[in-house]
Amino acid sequence: QLQLVESGGGRVPPGGSLKLSCSASGFSLSTDAVAVGWFRQVPGKDREEVACVHLIASSRSTSAARFSGSTDNSKTTAYLQIDNLKAEDTATYYCARSWYDDCRNPAGWGRGTQVTVSS
Which residues, listed in sequence order, are joined to residue 39 by a DSSP beta bridge? Predict the structure, then answer.
């Protein structure tokens, strides 16, 4: 099964930064996806997309300037940089691959990585 593995979450004080990683398990992002999306979810709320990184064009879109998506040169790992973290950023963050450049129909969900913003 083509699955992604998220890591890098943790507890961070307000105003801090985190860089989350998304690694492909058993496959290559460069051959099995067009884009990688980053999403987050809080219990009881709908999943929210926060970034979409196009693997071929290297273009990216984010829900806010505080979020920055990227990949390594080999396209094996995707990253989400979150700056100036706020309490409302507390959530479980997931990545997923997509065959669409706008990250629709995401697949290959991992277990997520928890981000907690608290002083």
Answer: 49, 94
**10-13 contacts: CB < 8 A, separation 24 or more?**
10/114, 10/115, 10/116, 11/116, 11/117, 11/118, 12/85, 12/115, 12/116, 12/117, 12/118, 13/85, 13/117, 13/118, 13/119
pLDDT digits (tens, 9 = 90+) for 72-102: 888 889 999 999 999 999 999 999 999 999 9
pLDDT digits (tens, 9 = 90+) for 29-38: 878 889 999 9
The pLDDT score that the predictor gives to residue 38 is 96
Strand partners, 62: 51
Dist. CA 20–CA 10, nearest whole Å: 10
